[in-house]
Amino acid sequence: MTTEQMMTCIRECLECMKKCNQCYDACLQEEEVNPMTACIRLTRDCADVCVLAAQFMTRNSEHMKEACVLCADICTRCVEECRNHAYEHCQACAAACEACAKKCRAIAAA
Amino acid sequence: MTTEQMMTCIRECLECMKKCNQCYDACLQEEEVNPMTACIRLTRDCADVCVLAAQFMTRNSEHMKEACVLCADICTRCVEECRNHAYEHCQACAAACEACAKKCRAIAAA
Amino acid sequence: MTTEQMMTCIRECLECMKKCNQCYDACLQEEEVNPMTACIRLTRDCADVCVLAAQFMTRNSEHMKEACVLCADICTRCVEECRNHAYEHCQACAAACEACAKKCRAIAAA
Amino acid sequence: MTTEQMMTCIRECLECMKKCNQCYDACLQEEEVNPMTACIRLTRDCADVCVLAAQFMTRNSEHMKEACVLCADICTRCVEECRNHAYEHCQACAAACEACAKKCRAIAAA
After folding, report:
1. Nearest CA in chain A to C39
2. Has residue A19 got a pLDDT over 90?
3. Closest residue of B to C46, CA-based?
4. What is the pLDDT of residue C3?
5. How many independent structural domains does chain D possess?
6. Which of B45, B61, B63 sits opposite A63 (nearest CB)?
7. CA B45 to CA A8: how far, in whole Å?
8. Radius of gyration for chain D, computed over Cα atoms and rounded to the nearest angstrom
9. What is the ipTM for the molecules in this complex?
């Protein structure tokens, strides 16, 4: 694993946390919230695990790879759900989650 | 998975977070801190992942099992390290981590 | 501040996190989610700050009092919102937040 | 409060979390860890509160200002401690904490 690779992954995790929280906030402001409940739940889980992974990487934890695996799994599930909604915030969130999952899997495999 | 089983696991995770943080605090007050650095790192990781698992379970997250797997893995590693130190705080932490890992693995397998 | 007082406050914070997350989960399962959005947001904020306060107290942080002040403020706001809803989960959450706020203010003043 | 102002503050909080965790990791690798224990404790508190503030801002929480106040207070204390140590990681951490505290106070006053 190169430092460059880890720095990129940290950046993607934090960007993903941001997009997940913005999506969560926007979902709660939609005219009809009922169809967004899965998205609300998943963006919260995803934001929290992105933070965990970013904290583990920045402090050089021996468990960073396992944290990145969990992060990638939750990101991937969040992409699936967000892809079901045409809203710009869901699409932006899906893109950030997809990028984050990819970098997290690269860390896990490094 | 029974509600009883999940409630027990939540309780063990929170107890483990507490014992990890008390061990962390005590390690930082030992006369010689150098031999305790692995313990300081691991108790921090462990406290954080215990909180993640407890939060996921209490909010009925679809990812609670995966969070419990990560929690069990980190707890098990923390037991290993704490067992190397005779301090009462390390032994208490190891016991809490062991109990937590067991309950987390039961949730993951349920 | 006595150890007893701190242990009680830690327990109330963790119980409050649990009740907030259970309320959040139940709100997202209500037939009409739209009226529950403020509650969903507040229970999330409250769960997170309860965890922060509990982590700070259990690791004997020099900032535990300030964390308890923020925790008490958010709990109090969460009580206000939950009191607007007759659901059992909202009433249970309000009760836990109220108890937590009280213990946190006692720590802050100790 | 402008969006620009908030985006800047989020960025500073996340940068500060990163520098705090890198300082924490480096402190635990110093030849003599005993003089670094206050720094280890403070960088952990600071990383955690930076994450809380960043999460609150990115999800548009009504408590973001109070979270920023707590964040600024802990950052300021972390600056004080890090300034006592000549290590590059402590100086980098102090600089990030100082920048973060400033932006957080601006949010709180906005």
Report:
1. A28
2. yes
3. B55
4. 92
5. 1
6. B45
7. 22
8. 14
9. 0.97
Rounded percentage of chain D residues whose pLDDT exceeds 90: 99
Identify the pLDDT of residue A9: 98
Which CATH number goes with the domain that contains A63? 1.20.1270.360
Residues in chain C with CB shorter than 8 Å from the CB of A44 are 44
The angle, 0 to 180 degrees and rounded to 10, between the axes of the packed helices B64-82 and A64-82 is 170
Asked whether the predicted pLDDT for residue A109 surpasses 90, the reply is yes
Which residues of C fall within a CB distance of 8 Å from A41? 28
- As given in the structure block, the two tokens for residue B95 are 């016991």
Q: Do A34 and C37 touch (CB under 8 A)?
A: no
Host domain of residue A18: 3-109
Is residue B28 within 8 Å of residue D41, measured between CB atoms? Answer: yes
Q: What single string gives the DSSP state of each residue in chain C?
A: --HHHHHHHHHHHHHHHHHHHHHHHHHTTSS--GGGHHHHHHHHHHHHHHHHHHHHHHTT-TTHHHHHHHHHHHHHHHHHHHTT---HHHHHHHHHHHHHHHHHHHHHH-
- Render pLDDT for B55-86 as a digit per residue (tens, 0 to 9): 999 999 999 999 999 999 999 999 999 999 99
Residue D1 has pLDDT above 90, yes or no: no
The answer to whether the CB of D47 falls within 8 A of the CB of D14 is: no
Q: Do D63 and C45 touch (CB under 8 A)?
A: yes
Measured CA to CA, the distance from residue D52 to residue C7 in angstroms comes to 23
Q: What is the pLDDT of residue C1?
A: 85
Chain B residues near residue D32 by CB distance under 8 angstroms? 34
Among A33, A40, A44, whose Cβ lies nearest the Cβ of C34? A33
And the tokens for D30?
């110093």
**A69 CB neighbour count, 10 Å cutoff:** 19
pLDDT at residue C106, as a whole number: 97
Q: Which chain A residue has the Cα nearest residue C26?
A: A37
Whether the full predicted model's pTM is greater than 0.90, yes or no, is yes
Q: With a cut of 90, say whether residue B1 has pLDDT above it.
A: no
Q: Do A51 and D55 touch (CB under 8 A)?
A: yes
How remote is the C-alpha of D68 from its chain's centroid? 10
> What is the nearest CA distance from C70 to chain D, expressed in angstroms?
7
Are D37 and B44 a contacting pair at CB < 8 A?
no
